[in-house]
User: Fold this.
Amino acid sequence: MITKSLTQRLAWKALTAHHRKAKGLHLRELFANDPKRGERLTVEAAGLFLDFSKNRVTDQTIALLLQLAKESGLRARINAMFRGEKVNVTENRAVLHAALRAPRSASIRVDGKNVVPEVHAVLDKMAAFTDRVRSGAWKGYSGKRIKNVVNIGIGGSDLGPVMAYEALKNYSARGMTFGFVSNVDGIDFVEATRALDPAETLFIVSSKTFTTMETMTNAQSARAWLLKGLGGNPKSVAKHFVAVSTNAEKVSAFGIDTANMFGFWDWVGGRYSMDSAIGLSTMLAIGPDHFRAMLDGFHQMDEHFRTAPFAKNLPVLMGLLSIWYNDFFGSQTVAVLPYENYLKRFPAYLQQLAMESNGKRVTLEGKPVNYDTSPIYWGEPGTNGQHSFYQLIHQGTRLIPCDFIVFARPLTPLGRHHDILLANVLAQSEALAFGKTTAEVKSEGTLPGLVPHRAFDGNRPSNTLLADRLTPATLGKLVALYEHSVFTQGAIWNINPFDQWGVELGKALAQRILPEIESKVIPKLKHDSSTNNLIRRYRKMKAAK
Ligand code: F6P
Assistant:
């Protein structure tokens, strides 16, 4: 039981005092004074190697951060989550994404019931369905085999599937196309289906609640598109629509046979669901064996997180380092920079994972926090980012900790490309850490007026995560690593990473504004003068066409 608020804990106070000294240290000195630092400040687990030596930390910083984790009751929180306790206190739910990847033989209880058999029953149902679709045994209404799969979902019911599809494209069935429709902007649906033959298209309507406005609107448009293309018989829907949801009633009300529904449970948060049935499009793309390999990767990282001492625990260390910059240096963002083009949607995926989880301003007890919570996650794959925003990371006024994600072996070797890619990522972390001093710039004969422009102060921190190659298992490990790092941060900030009340107000207001926009008679508007004016203007502009 934690009684002291975060800023009153001894380790927090010690870190505040320690930061006053540590902020003046330069990575140049830290490395010069400790020739083995680059080998020492590393940790490896489940085939992921983390070099955290280029962070602005000393051994004392790490010791104090570990002490903070201890004083914050992190161990008890981890155990409570894995035991199936209702750690999502505001929704009174267990949080058991770890059960989604537990082996068949495991036993994890929610309200006294072992949920692992149900998890595997759904996985088996997904695998049987996948085999039928991929083999052509599942036929569309007019007897053609399915060649196109379109996932309709948003947030956690989209970002995970899209990210995983892009990340694992190399393992996917190349004879099929996979599309993702999320935005209620009609263009998303129109573009995704433009070149598709309805007779060969399967829609997966993915929604935990099956009430989300965007997804339901897109699903209705998909239904209309299909019926129009296949002659209008409502019976065709059953052959071209399946659902992934926790809400069987709503699925059936939409007209999808619940026999073609793949379920999951309220103890799976949307942003933690890519390894549940929400991953059906992923399984259709890469096949059941690769999907299970991905789950095994997740599980390996779960076990590491659950059992490893904090000093050797990858997610714990990454979470603590993030707190160090966020709460002591005042860094506002974290850049996630994968040097693997297949991971191009990974930063977008992480944005929901981290920011919907830890973008909170009150503690578990509902008291306002007096410290910063989640940083902003962002990023793009290297080397592209080097030629756009890295300038700011190198020479701007903000401190932006970076996570570089690197693989030793490319999935599709091509000449010298991979060595060049690797040379670039290593060069970036080196340049960020050590910079280029004024003396070095001068010694190159640089014109005096240009010296300040060409000097790099360095001391800009980064982690480098190195793995062998991007396999399904590696992807699982990587996602679980960030899930647990986010958990670690949330536990220390004493907030609930598993609810998302902050998205509700906008949803409710949209429901109120929609009829005002659509009504034939001019509505009486009771918003603020800006919103009223914009609604009136929009009504006029759309009437003018
Ligand atoms: O609006 C936020 C949110 O509830 C996310 O948490 C969730 O991932 C997304 O919407 C989609 O929800 P659903 O799967 O219920 O359609």
Remarks:
- The chain has a mean pLDDT of 97.
- The chain has 22 helices and 13 strands.
- Residues 154-157, 207-209, 212, 215, 270-271, 356, 500, 503 surround 6-O-phosphono-beta-D-fructofuranose (CB under 6 Å).
